[in-house]
Amino acid sequence: MTASELARQLHGKKAGKRWQCRCPCTTMHHNGDRNRSLSVWESEDNWIRLHCFTGCTRDEILAALGLKVRDLALNEFRRNPEWEQRRRDEDRLKLLEHQHGLAIMAQAVIPEERNYWAAVERNIAIKGRALRGKLYPEEKIRREKERELQRIISEYGFEELWNCLPQSVFEVKHEN
Ligand SMILES: [Zn+2]
Hints:
Layout: H1 3-9, E1 13-15, E2 18-21, E3 38-42, E4 48-52, H2 58-65, H3 81-109, H4 114-135, H5 137-156, H6 158-164
Antiparallel strand pairs: 1-2, 2-3, 3-4
The structure holds zinc ion.
């Protein structure tokens, strides 16, 4: 909800950056608020502010509207599908890591079913890696680089690498 939407609901008239609205409280305004006593505006810190010049409190106004304080927040409490998905992914990753541990344990304590639990563990590990890569993409890039380095080392051997790299890489620079 924005201040403009709330103001429309309260027959507000725009005056500068604020709306002069009919206050919905009936305690102070027995026959409805003919004077447009309620000022509604959006503050710099992203809240909808309410002020009734007759003296109704914010809680009274909210109660009359059937709203909660959090409904006046322009950003903080607004549902963010991206965050919600991330929270779900994090919960799922936690669960997968827990299951991963259990599968490893099962391999150790149930030797006759070791192959089964090893397959389960592999399956969980693949899912966990995919989710981890999605949640922490930078870590994924770092691990890919490490894997690539390991591959090069295992393929060429350290000595060959040493020989084909320019020696300037290993020289210590002395700067004044
Ligand atoms: Zn009022």
